[in-house]
Amino acid sequence: METIYKVALVVVLLVVIFNLGQALFFMMKDKDDDRRTVWALTRRIGLSLVLIGMVILGIWMGWLHPHGVSP
Which keywords does the record carry (predicted)? Predict the structure, then answer.
C-alpha cells in the first residue's frame, strides 16, 4: 500500500508541474484571451491542495515518514 501511495503522490506532483507549464504556454500563446491560463492555474491550485492533503494523510496513517535534518 505504501508504494502505491508514493507513486500516486509522484503522479499528482507531475500533473501539478504539467499544469504549471501548460499555464505558461497559454500565457505566452494567448495574448488577448487568458481564460485558458486562469483555468490551468486554477487546476494547479486545486491539485496542489489535494497533494498537500495526501501528504498529511500519508503521515497521519504512517505510510510516509518525515525525517529531520541533522546538523
Answer: Membrane, Transmembrane, Transmembrane helix
Question: How many Å apart are CA 47 and CA 9, to the nearest integer?
Answer: 11
pLDDT digits (tens, 9 = 90+) for 24-57: 999 999 888 889 999 999 999 999 999 999 999 9
- Torsion, Cα of 54, 41, 17, 53 (10° steps): -10
Query: pTM for this structure?
Result: 0.82
Q: Name the residue among 71, 37, 1, 43 with its Cα closest to residue 51.
A: 43
Query: Which residues neighbour 44 within 8 Å (Cβ) at sequence distance 6 or greater?
Result: 16, 19, 20, 23
